[in-house]
Design a protein that fits this description.
The chain has two domains: 75 residues; 103 residues, Alpha-Beta Plaits (2-Layer Sandwich), CATH 3.30.70.60. The chain contains three helices and six strands; from the N terminus they run αβαβββαββ. Strands 1, 2, 3, 4, 5 and 6 form a six-stranded mixed beta sheet that branches. Strand 3 and strand 4 form a beta hairpin. Helix 2 packs antiparallel against helix 3. It is rod-shaped, with a radius of gyration of 41 Å.
Length: 193
């Protein structure tokens, strides 16, 4: 019986010692490891969120750069403020190349603001000449380094009062819009002349 009692007492003491060791050393260490693992997880999530934000920022900057390039290319098709005469000269050169007579009416009084730096200006072109020359003129007009948005095109034979030889002469009237970019446009839209 004494032996049994000694065994139980020893087991009790060892169990109590194990519980004390578990409580003093193992539990705090396990809790510290668990807290460290939670901290690592939180940091990992923070790093992943920052990485995703960085990726979004890079993508946005790339998209902005691409948009600026495309917008600048489109802005290059506009008539730039202060360089309107270049546009008129290009129209006159197109008429001379095609061998037609042309009357240009750039209706700046009827312009419409599209944004704080872009305006839409109505343009009326009256062109006279032989039909094949009018087709060449339209081809020249299409190749201009400006955007001329044709809204309507009317053809009719020339009248007696206009010319002494109306044979083969055709009058063409083009209603169009051109776009003017002001000097206060952002730099990427308004390159230096």
């Amino acid at each position: 019986m004494k032996l049994r009692h000694k065994i139980f007492t020893t087991i009790g003491i060892l169990g109590a010692a194990a519980l004390i060791i578990l409580g003093v050393i193992v539990y705090p260490s396990a809790k510290a490891i668990d807290d460290l693992a939670k901290g690592i997880s939180a940091q990992k999530l923070t790093i992943e969120e920052r990485y995703l934000r960085l990726q979004q920022i890079r993508s946005s900057l790339k998209g902005l750069g691409d948009a600026r390039q495309k917008t600048a290319a489109l802005a290059g098709l506009a008539v730039h403020e202060g360089r309107e005469l270049d546009f008129i000269n290009a129209l006159e050169a197109a008429a001379a190349e095609a061998g037609v007579e042309q009357d240009i009416n750039l209706e700046t009084a009827n312009q419409k603001d599209l944004s704080k730096w872009e305006r839409e200006i109505p343009l009326t072109l009256k062109v006279s000449g032989p039909y094949p020359s009018l087709l060449r003129y339209l081809s020249e007009l299409e190749r201009l380094p400006y955007m001329v948005n044709v809204r309507s095109l009317q053809l009719e034979t020339a009248t007696e009062s206009r010319t002494s030889n109306p044979r083969g002469i055709v009058d063409m009237r083009i209603q169009a819009m051109v776009y003017r970019l002001s000097k206060n446009a952002p730099e990427f839209l308004n390159p230096a002349p």
